[in-house]
């Protein structure tokens, strides 16, 4: 039995959940609150990070969201997320890194810090300057998605791929936290509406974090 | 002709150079100083980061060090760096992420900030508290390498792999900047001496950054 150690608003956990959903894999969720720093998580993953995919039957543990996605891609032929030749695959992986690293650092991480960590742990109000900076960066990243969507069928090329999953995972967390303003980003908005209407995405959109409600449009498929 | 846009003390550039050396690939170096933020680099890589591998003949561009390494692995059978079954490959990729992300964030990045960026750009002395923290974190990571070396032939398993390259690339930059104290880490030291004596590693060890000399033991194969 696969168990996925994850947190509902962790964009890397979301990316893995979407991929497992696309590949139609059964798994159990184990919630890990990042602020708990549970010993059990550190025992599973020396880096102390989520997501971690744990096979309770065989005792196998796979950590790091990119390693997990590559593993699932190698193990399960269904719904390939890294198809094409090596150059196409490199382009998909470049985009995954762009969203996992740059988008996360510029947008998702500051939103999580200001709107989740400060509220739940420090009982402090968010820093409005940091929020403005994150939303400004989000516009820059959405501009790039607009451009990709203008030139390709999907972000990584002609096929739905891990690039779409990585981008949509980050955006969905930023959107939950009120950090996405779609004005002026019709192409990105249309692309995201298509991705979030997929069955693999639905379970994420119905989850709520206690005390932090998402905006009204968040779970709406045409929102 | 392959051109690698890189900086001599960028650990991610080093990882790619070691892999290209192991695979015996010819390429030309293009130096990118991270502080220059050249327009040409941003045109090659929207993330504005090095390394970038550019094929001047075909016009192909590959960005992100992990995407580059996966691409080289798929294109060149010689000197495989990700061999084994999917679980073994996942373990190698987990370790690559651990060194690329955790070791870099805890050790290499603060050392580069304090000893290179502050000196070359701000003409400021390093913050000794930040340096102490980085060196303390380095001990923790070296402890983990000691443990890996005690239980396996190489860091990722029974074969030399990308995990060894990622770890050695980070360590070599930290060592250049005087951030590695090998005392109490005999296993890690022995493993590193073997890796750094490989022909793929030699070109890195002879390069110097103007105004920042490495410690005496840095380029010594038994150092």
From TrEMBL, chains A, B:
GO MF entries: transferase activity
CC terms in the record's Gene Ontology section: cytoplasm
Protein name stated in the entry: Glutathione S-transferase family protein
Pfam family, one: GST_N_3
Protein keywords: Transferase
Residues in GST C-terminal domain copies: 85-215
Annotated organism of origin: Qipengyuania algicida
CDD domains attached to this UniProt entry: GST_C_family, GST_N_family
Limits of the GST N-terminal domain: 1-80
InterPro entries: Glutathione-S-Trfase_C-like, Glutathione-S-Trfase_C_sf, Glutathione_S-Trfase, Glutathione_S-Trfase_N, GST_Omega/HSP26, Thioredoxin-like_sf
């Amino acid at each position: 039995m696969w168990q996925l150690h994850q947190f509902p608003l962790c964009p890397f956990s979301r990316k893995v959940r979407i991929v497992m959903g696309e590949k139609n894999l059964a798994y159990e969720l184990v919630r890990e609150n990042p602020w708990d720093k549970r010993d059990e998580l550190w025992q599973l993953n020396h880096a102390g990070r989520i997501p971690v995919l744990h096979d309770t039957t065989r005792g196998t543990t796979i950590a790091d969201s990119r390693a997990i996605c590559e593993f699932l891609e190698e193990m399960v032929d269904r719904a390939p997320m890294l198809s094409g030749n090596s150059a196409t695959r490199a382009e998909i992986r470049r985009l995954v890194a762009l969203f996992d690293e740059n988008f996360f650092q510029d947008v998702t991480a500051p939103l999580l810090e200001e709107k989740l960590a400060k509220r739940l742990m420090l009982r402090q109000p968010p820093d409005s300057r940091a929020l403005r900076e994150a939303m400004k960066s989000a516009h820059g990243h959405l501009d790039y998605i607009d451009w990709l969507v203008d030139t390709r069928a999907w972000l990584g090329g002609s096929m739905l791929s891990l690039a779409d999953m990585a981008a949509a995972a980050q955006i969905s967390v930023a959107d939950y936290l009120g950090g996405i303003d779609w004005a002026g980003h019709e192409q990105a908005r249309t692309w995201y509406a298509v991705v979030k209407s997929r069955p693999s995405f639905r379970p994420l959109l119905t989850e709520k974090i206690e005390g932090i409600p998402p905006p009204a449009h968040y779970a709406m498929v045409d929102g």
